[in-house]
Design a protein that fits this description.
Belongs to the major facilitator superfamily. Sugar transporter (TC 2.A.1.1) family. By secondary structure, the protein is mainly α. The chain is 79% helix and 0% strand. It is built from 18 helices and no strands. Helix 2 runs antiparallel to helix 16, helix 7 runs antiparallel to helix 8 and helix 16 runs antiparallel to helix 17.
């Protein structure tokens, strides 16, 4: 199913996810460096908590803008050009951030970088979903989540190296500059998605015969020697299936909220919504203080704790990659989210009843992180990229990405006031109750897509 050229195909789109993760890790260290009177290397280091919040969330706002931009242009420019554009924005954003002479320029750099994140998280899973063989599609898209976590661990690691150096925050952002260049070169070398080319052909957006020929060449390049003889036959099969499910008619925005598309939007939007509102940003935010109460000496150093949790996330995402195409999406979601329910109620009860037994909190924290990476972490992005009908896939995924980043921003902002109002124990139990609701959603609404082609998913699951 895979040869060496196929592995490269997934490496380049996944680099965009690596850059997203790196930014999260590096920024947590950069905010420490930039506020230091002795190590920041700037005269404007006396930043308020609001300023630091703007630095941290700047890329999140950029990602929201990127999702809106993707809604308008994704199906016009295609997945490949979307990723090349994202690589260019990453390069500009990282360079501007690293060289920023004043605070407003730093924020501009962060927002530009974030627009690249929004485009990547839209185009990368779509490109991989549309080019991967159905038998290993889950594994290949989950590699994107693995790349994000790997980038996060890399960002924490590089950040902790530079955090004691004068102007270290500049070096943290500058270190990553070669990666988007490599990503852009790789995406220029890769062909366009065959399914996107066939969609253009069906909808009369070019010469049908030449687009079909281009799709055959693309499939041969992407799958290598495995499909040299059968590529034309496979392309004709995809064309026939697309015509039979009505992909030859151009979609309107209104169709997103009707029939099959509405069902796909409910599945994808529901998964990314529950992914964020079951406390994922908040539990990680609380990790250092949980480990500190447990008496871990490393707990005094937030970056070391983050690396430890990052490695656990990486290992569990690796487990998900190995089993996702064997076990399927639903068993991992139901099993992983059940583990999250147990861990959240354990965390809540620790803060209410057992705060003299820190081992409870540590066990709950590790269980939560592990179960999240087996379930919501990779599978929300995977199902988002495979559930939408082709003609509305670009717009549908951009709405789901918008929901993801929008709810992430909301949960991150609401966490502190909610904690003050309700207390940590009640808040974590609240997240646990939402997690129980998400189990009902998964059980009754989310279909199994293991082993089906994208066209079969559209025909059988929607």
């Amino acid at each position: 199913l895979l040869n060496k050229s196929s592995i490269f195909r997934f490496l380049f789109p996944a680099l965009g996810a690596f850059l997203f993760g790196y930014e999260i890790g590096a920024t947590s260290c950069a905010t420490i460096s930039i506020k230091s009177p002795t190590l920041s290397g700037i005269s404007w280091h006396n930043l308020s908590s609001v300023d630091v919040g703007i630095i941290t969330s700047g890329s999140l706002y950029g990602a929201l803008i990127g999702s809106i931009v993707a809604f308008s242009i994704a199906d016009i420019i295609g997945r490949r050009k979307g990723l090349i554009t994202a690589a260019f924005l990453y390069l500009v954003g990282a360079t501007v951030t690293a060289l920023a002479p004043v605070f407003p320029v730093l924020i501009i750099g962060r927002v530009v970088y974030g627009i690249g994140v929004g485009l990547t998280m839209h185009a990368a899973p779509m490109y991989i979903a549309e080019t991967a063989p159905s038998q290993i599609r889950g594994r290949m898209i989950s590699l994107k989540e693995f790349s994000t976590v790997f980038g996060m661990v890399g960002g924490y690691g590089i950040g902790s190296l530079w955090v004691t150096v004068i102007s270290g925050w500049r070096y943290m952002y500058a270190t990553v500059i070669p990666v988007p260049i490599f990503m852009a070169i790789g995406m220029c070398w890769l062909p366009a998605s065959p399914r996107w080319l066939l969609l253009r052909s069906l909808q009369g957006k070019g010469d049908a015969e030449s687009l079909r020929d281009e799709a055959i060449k693309s499939l041969r390049r992407l799958r290598g020697s495995v499909v040299v003889d059968s590529a034309a036959e496979q392309v004709d099969e995809i064309l026939a299936e697309l015509s039979s499910v009505g992909e030859d008619k151009e979609a309107t925005i209104g169709e997103l909220f009707q029939g099959k598309c509405l069902k796909a939007l409910t599945i994808a939007g529901g998964l990314v919504l529950f992914q964020q509102i079951t406390g994922q940003p908040s539990v990680l935010y609380y990790a250092p203080s949980i480990l500190q109460t447990a008496g871990f000496s490393a707990a005094t150093d937030a970056t070391r704790i983050s690396i430890l949790l990052g490695i656990l996330k990486l290992v569990m995402t690796g487990v998900a990659i190995v089993v996702i195409d064997k076990l399927g999406r639903r068993p991992l979601l139901l099993g992983g989210v059940s583990g999250m329910v147990i861990s959240l109620f354990l965390l809540g009860s620790y803060y209410i009843f057992y705060n003299n037994v820190p081992a409870v909190a540590v066990a709950a924290l590790l269980l939560y992180v592990g179960c999240y990476q087996l379930s919501f972490g990779p599978i929300s992005w995977l199902m988002m990229s495979e559930i939408f009908p082709l003609k509305l896939r670009g717009r549908g995924i951009s709405i789901a990405v918008l929901v993801n980043f929008g709810t992430n921003a909301l949960v991150t902002f609401a966490f502190s006031p909610m904690k003050e109002l309700l207390g940590a124990g009640v808040l974590f139990c609240g997240f646990g109750a939402i997690c129980v609701l998400s189990l009902f959603f998964i059980y009754f609404i989310v279909p199994e897509t293991k082993g089906l082609t994208l066209e079969e998913i559209e025909a059988k699951c929607l």
